[in-house]
Amino acid sequence: MLLRMAAPISLGMLSTFLFQIVDTYFVGHLGSPELAALAFSSTAYLVFVSIFMGLSVGVSSVVAKAAGAGDMDRARGLAVVSLGTVLVLSLGLSILARAAIGPMFTALGASDEVLPLIGDYMGILYLSFPFLMLGIVGSGTVRAIGIAGKSEIVFAIAGAINLVFDWLLIFGKGPFPELELAGAAYATALSFIFVFVGVAVIMKRSGLLAFSQFSAGLSGLGDILRFSVPTISMQILVPSTGMFVTFLLAGHGAEAVAAFGVASRIEALALIGIFAVSISITPFIAQNFGARQHDRIDEAVVFAGKASIYLGILLFGILALLGPMIGRIFSDDTEVVRFVGLYFKIVALSYGFQGIVNVTVAIFNGLQMPGTALQIMLVRTFAIVFPLLTIGSFLGLWWLLGALALGNVLAAIYAGLMMRRSQRKWNRPIADASPLADILQDIGRLFVMK
User: Which of 173-177, 273-277, 384-388 reaches the highest mean pLDDT?
Assistant: First the structure.
């Protein structure tokens, strides 16, 4: 079931991250300053996406629990109320953020050369963010009632739209003007509008745009906020690490920032499998929690942990080998290529541990324990990763990347301890299981035929 849910989610996430990858590829042909501007801009993009991904997780958990308990009127009402909340919140944040482009990116370390380029890109993109945010939360409500494929197809088509219009508008092909970096923003904005329209149609056909159930959902607004506030706070912590690394790298020049922009976007693309498991497991856990199917929850916990480790090992093998080759696809600057190769040799080693943190947080959200999920992310960010990055930044680039990898490992150990403590509290049989023994048994099955 989790694999069937995660597969279409992976497709949708692939297209979402391809927005950034495609932009990076085309903008890389314009030069390192443009690539650095895109790297700075991606931090704001990820903050916005994280806020509404957090809201989506909270809404999905509440809607899924209502659906699991058989109360579909409440589920429909919650979906409608959540969209109204997203509309108001996204419009307000977009207007405020657009007015603060200069001060915000100056504080992040953008140079006078890069700042106007950021304005060209983000000035357009901010106006289109509400369309994407409505699509993200809308697709979360659809997944919560068990429809996991249709909205992901919409995101995939949107990715293709972005690719085509990137090529047309950045370089001025055919009758289209040559807009360079602004062209990338217009292309992405068009794809966001398509996402909104497509997801709205799916919700309508699925019966979730039932405005007659608005009053039923309004009574559950408190539940939405109770779950969404910690999940939003938690999701904001994810790009905050990237923002902090960007700030630390700004002192090393535009090339270092540009290289991190390339590496982080490839990283997001590579981690899609782990992200998809994390997203799919929250409504799965919530539905089974509502239906009191605790054995299925135990199986999901084991599956998610093992999937994170195995995917992490696979990704390290691929990216550590192909890192420099990937860097040369996006830039011909030798410093950019060297940094990208170094990044994947060091940081990719910790991807399995990063996955453990992600799925553990998702499981606690599904168990209606967003406070515990937030606690894990707060400890990871402020007690582990930020202090290590600060120390590493004084020692050099190699040490900074090593600090990021070590932070992922230590955070995974903490998340595992929190999960084990929770399982023991509920007297679940997996509380005393040995993950290492289970993994070694799986490895043995690869070589021994029984």
Answer: 384-388
* Banded model confidence at residue 322, pLDDT cuts 50, 70, 90: confident
Which pLDDT tens digit goes with each residue over 351-390? 999 989 988 988 888 787 878 888 998 999 999 999 999 9
Collect contacts of 285-288 with beta carbons under 8 A, ≥24 apart: 285/362, 285/363, 285/365, 285/366, 285/367, 286/60, 286/61, 286/64, 286/65, 286/68, 286/144, 286/365, 286/366, 286/367, 286/368, 287/64, 287/65, 287/67, 287/68, 287/146, 288/68
Whole-number Å distance between alpha carbons of 192 and 202: 16
Cβ-based burial of 175 (10 A; exposed 0-12, middle 13-18, buried ≥19): exposed
Q: How far is CA 438 from each of CA 224, 302, 314, 362, 394, rounded to the nearest angstrom? A: 37, 9, 18, 22, 40
Q: Would you say 152 and 127 are in contact if contact means Cβ atoms under 8 Å apart?
A: no
Coil, helix or strand for 14? helix
Query: Scanning the structure block, which residue is given the tokens 């039932």?
Result: 210
Contact 161, 191 (CB under 8 A): yes
Fill in the DSSP letter of residue 69. Answer: T
% pLDDT > 70, the chain? 91
Distance CA 150, CA 142 (A): 9
Amino acid at 293: Q
Q: How confident is the model at residue 6 (pLDDT cuts 50, 70, 90)?
A: low
Query: Could you give the CA distance from residue 78 to residue 59 in angstroms, rounded to a whole number?
Result: 8
- Interatomic CA distance for residues 302 and 288, integer angstroms: 15
pLDDT confidence of residue 128 = 93
The distance from CA 266 to its chain's CA centroid, rounded to whole angstroms, is 13
- C-alpha Rg value of the chain to the nearest Å: 21
Distance, CA of 417 to CA of 360 (rounded, Å): 10
Write the DSSP symbol of residue 347. Answer: G
Rounded Cα distance between 48 and 128, Å, is 12
Mean pLDDT of 228-248: 77
CB of 136 within 8 A of CB of 53? yes
DSSP state letter for 176: S
* 3-state SS class at 449: coil
CA distance 252 to 397: 9
Residue 213 pLDDT > 70: no
235 sits in which H/E element = helix 221-250
pLDDT tens across 278-307, in order? 877 877 887 777 777 778 888 888 888 888
Per-residue pLDDT averaged across 141-162, rounded? Answer: 81
